[in-house]
């Protein structure tokens, strides 16, 4: 299978992707530091993917923001439970209960070259399955102390290889790692 599975996610310096109860207000505050027109490479990353794969909790969090759906690429929501998809999103969002191995094989067979894996638990599942190929972390200059950790539910230790870095004048640090599963 020749499918690149990539994560692109922001964390606090102490490794949380959300505060207590899934609070993301700290990200809104951090985004005010970013100069207008700067997106820290997110648009280029999104242009490079074919599908976005996220867990049900991440999907429900994005839905809770209200307003217009922000993703133009097809979104697949992983869940073993029923996922409610509003009618206006049914052409862009689908639910999947199959294993991530089966999903990746299916997407690769359909011609997908790269997917975006989002959500702490989903990222951990991809690492545990030895399918995540790379991760781009944007460290936000805040310490939350409590919250939802990046690798929530990871079952194994995993080595990473730093392949790129970028330090922004407004305090963000971006680190890109390849995942080294060894032989």
TrEMBL record:
GO terms for molecular function: 5-amino-6-(5-phosphoribosylamino)uracil reductase activity. This is Dihydrofolate reductase. It comes from Thalassotalea mangrovi. The lineage of its organism: Bacteria, Pseudomonadati, Pseudomonadota, Gammaproteobacteria, Alteromonadales. PANTHER family: 2,5-DIAMINO-6-RIBOSYLAMINO-4(3H)-PYRIMIDINONE 5'-PHOSPHATE REDUCTASE, DIHYDROFOLATE REDUCTASE FAMILY PROTEIN (AFU_ORTHOLOGUE AFUA_8G06820). One of its GO terms (biological process) is riboflavin biosynthetic process. Residues 9-170 form the Bacterial bifunctional deaminase-reductase C-terminal domain. InterPro entries: DHFR-like_dom_sf, RibDG_C, Riboflavin_Biosynth_HTPR.
